């Protein structure tokens, strides 16, 4: 039976560590401020933004809320970002995605000052990760590295298979595992012999967005299984890309859904905000 990798507990640990760090920074006269931009009223986005604000409150990060109407033009949004880029009191800028269809997401991400890019989506941040330079790392993959490290999983020399090559999960995940000296294989929808490749993984990261796709046939005895997927089934229950009941007896460690990767994303966003403020203070 696999040991559960408890994302709830580990994310709470990280938030407590950050809370202490921010209190220390405050006592030395440094504050941490995150600006969150929400365009429109997408219900899921509203929930995410609310959770991010709550996490800020808990840790002691000041959050500035910029709620803009659905019909905001791209130019208006870019102007808001420029204003926040220039505002010295703002350490991190987060634009909640997805944006309404009439706004080009790439143009918006490009407009954020890389020094305030706490989501880690700016091409400069991605490039820095690629060539091993300091920069902000996309929160979900950064959170997975923390889950592995804090659960005592050594990455060095392990065969790490990442299934999914999106810009926010699969690609940065692969680069981070490589940075940790894993031997990395990236799979995607055109990969041949997916089952065989997955079965050769010591660490298997599943991020394809297909509910319960990964069954026991994809998992080596004793593998560590990280499930990034989030889906709601017909009974409104959450499940992941991994068929937990089938995978759990074979894996040595596994993340549940909910309570695995999900809670780590906000914790790492908070960590990036604190890092941004520290870097600014060191300038
Ligand atoms: P995308 O849809 O952007 O990417 C999916 C990737 O999976 C693509 O690279 C695609 O390949 C690949 N893929 C799709 N089907 C298959 C298949 N049958 N076999 C092999 N590869 C396949 O998704 P994201 O990366 O954004 O998200 C993945 C999942 O993670 C989703 O369920 C999402 O909800 C969840 N998620 C969870 C987060 C969290 O905080 N827990 C944060 C972000 C995402 P190709 O490139 O060839 O099309």
Automatic annotation (TrEMBL):
Domain Tetrahydrofolate dehydrogenase/cyclohydrolase NAD(P)-binding residue range list: 138-280
Annotated signal peptide: none
Classification via InterPro entries: Aminoacid_DH-like_N_sf, NAD(P)-bd_dom_sf, THF_DH/CycHdrlase, THF_DH/CycHdrlase_cat_dom, THF_DH/CycHdrlase_CS, THF_DH/CycHdrlase_NAD-bd_dom
Gene from which the chain derives: folD
PANTHER family linked to this entry: C-1-TETRAHYDROFOLATE SYNTHASE, CYTOPLASMIC, C-1-TETRAHYDROFOLATE SYNTHASE, CYTOPLASMIC-RELATED
Family as reported in the entry's similarity comment: Belongs to the tetrahydrofolate dehydrogenase/cyclohydrolase family.
GO BP: any one term: L-histidine biosynthetic process
Name by which UniProt lists this protein: Bifunctional protein FolD
Protein purpose: Catalyzes the oxidation of 5,10-methylenetetrahydrofolate to 5,10-methenyltetrahydrofolate and then the hydrolysis of 5,10-methenyltetrahydrofolate to 10-formyltetrahydrofolate.
Entry GO terms, CC: cytosol
Keywords: Amino-acid biosynthesis, Histidine biosynthesis, Hydrolase, Methionine biosynthesis, Multifunctional enzyme, NADP, One-carbon metabolism, Oxidoreductase, Purine biosynthesis
Pathway per the UniProt entry: One-carbon metabolism; tetrahydrofolate interconversion
Domain Tetrahydrofolate dehydrogenase/cyclohydrolase catalytic: 5-119
Domain of life: Bacteria
Catalytic reaction(s) noted: (6R)-5,10-methylene-5,6,7,8-tetrahydrofolate + NADP(+) = (6R)-5,10-methenyltetrahydrofolate + NADPH; (6R)-5,10-methenyltetrahydrofolate + H2O = (6R)-10-formyltetrahydrofolate + H(+)
Organism of derivation: Candidatus Scybalocola faecigallinarum
HAMAP family (UniProt xref): THF_DHG_CYH (MF_01576)
Binding-site residues for NADP(+), renumbered to this chain: 164-166, 230
Subunit structure: Homodimer.
Molecular function as annotated in GO: methenyltetrahydrofolate cyclohydrolase activity; methylenetetrahydrofolate dehydrogenase (NADP+) activity
UniProt EC number: 1.5.1.5, 3.5.4.9
PROSITE patterns: THF_DHG_CYH_1, THF_DHG_CYH_2
